[in-house]
From TrEMBL:
<dbReference type="InterPro" id="IPR003593">
    <property type="entry name" value="AAA+_ATPase"/>
</dbReference>
<keyword id="KW-0046">Antibiotic resistance</keyword>
<dbReference type="GO" id="GO:0005524">
    <property type="term" value="F:ATP binding"/>
</dbReference>
<protein>
    <submittedName>
        <fullName>ABC-2 type transport system ATP-binding protein</fullName>
    </submittedName>
</protein>
<keyword id="KW-0067">ATP-binding</keyword>
<dbReference type="InterPro" id="IPR003439">
    <property type="entry name" value="ABC_transporter-like_ATP-bd"/>
</dbReference>
<keyword id="KW-0547">Nucleotide-binding</keyword>
<feature type="domain" description="ABC transporter">
    <location>
        <begin position="4"/>
        <end position="229"/>
    </location>
</feature>
<keyword id="KW-0813">Transport</keyword>
<dbReference type="Pfam" id="PF00005">
    <property type="entry name" value="ABC_tran"/>
</dbReference>
<dbReference type="GO" id="GO:0046677">
    <property type="term" value="P:response to antibiotic"/>
</dbReference>
<dbReference type="InterPro" id="IPR027417">
    <property type="entry name" value="P-loop_NTPase"/>
</dbReference>
<dbReference type="InterPro" id="IPR017871">
    <property type="entry name" value="ABC_transporter-like_CS"/>
</dbReference>
<dbReference type="GO" id="GO:0016887">
    <property type="term" value="F:ATP hydrolysis activity"/>
</dbReference>
<dbReference type="GO" id="GO:0005886">
    <property type="term" value="C:plasma membrane"/>
</dbReference>
<dbReference type="InterPro" id="IPR050763">
    <property type="entry name" value="ABC_transporter_ATP-binding"/>
</dbReference>
Amino acid sequence: MSAITISGLRKTYGDNVAVDDLSFEVADGEVYGLLGHNGAGKSTTIEIMEGHRERTSGDVTVLGIDPEQGGRELRDRIGIVLQTSGTDVELTVRESIELYGAAYRRRRTVDEIVELVGLEEKVDARVGSLSGGQKRRLDLGLGIVGYPELLFLDEPTTGFDPAARRRSWEMIQGLCSLGTTVVLTTHYLDEAEQLADRVGVMARGKMVAEGTPAELMSASPTTTISFEVPEGVDPDALLVPADSTFDTSGNATTCVIETAEPTRVLAEVMGAAAARGHELAGISVRRPSLEDVFLGLAGEREGSEQ
Ligand SMILES: Nc1ncnc2c1ncn2[C@@H]1O[C@H](COP(=O)(O)OP(=O)(O)OP(=O)(O)O)[C@@H](O)[C@H]1O
């Protein structure tokens, strides 16, 4: 079953088309990552799914309900973690959880929440005294207080240090293993790679690519091979392709080859080097990352705006 079905969604603000004929589905229990540059239409789409914004046209079903008609029934079944929380800094962690929980029919206990988000030590601390990362963890805790079937996470780890990001990823993965469906927006491609079962890339209100992170990465045929050219060796003697580039900014000259046939090119170059007795330093073979693919896709659509 689909947790979310969106078909032909359009949202305009005056002449500005923020979302343009958008269609996609999120399956039950799936983690779906929505990616795109600033202004691509992600927030508008998410707010429409949450029932916080009216659409201009198109069909939207969230947990079987039209969010414009959802009211309390939908609010009770979804959790929302926004980029900036409105938590009162004077309240303690315990009081905040109790206050948020009061809005839900079914709610997790304070003990359960602080354990899930690792804030046991801070349960009686004032929100104002928490670090940035601890506040975000509290936000996540408040988002899941009502046992949401569907959780919206808006850039969940923006501003975190690497260790805090890892902890949050583990927490989010833990929630997913409980069966919660998650829709997250993120600017971090490694986050999408780590967390999302599928990602959708938006540009100018449209979906420009969709698939698992692995599918999107394999859609790009280019592999980058690089190595240091040994001193005094003519790169032509190593049979490097004619369109190879050479980076001379470091101590050595690095040959960079972009190719759709990495096996053949590697075999030729390595064979030529070995036949001449050259040991090549710094050999690397790199498949495109999700970031390369994303920047290519989003950049093509955004043109010179970005
Ligand atoms: N309330 C509004 N009134 C008028 N235009 C708006 C409004 N909200 C968004 N827009 C416009 O709609 C377009 C999409 O914005 P949206 O916030 O959905 O993008 P986004 O992908 O979420 O960006 P970000 O990553 O910066 O949050 C932008 O051109 C934006 O200026």
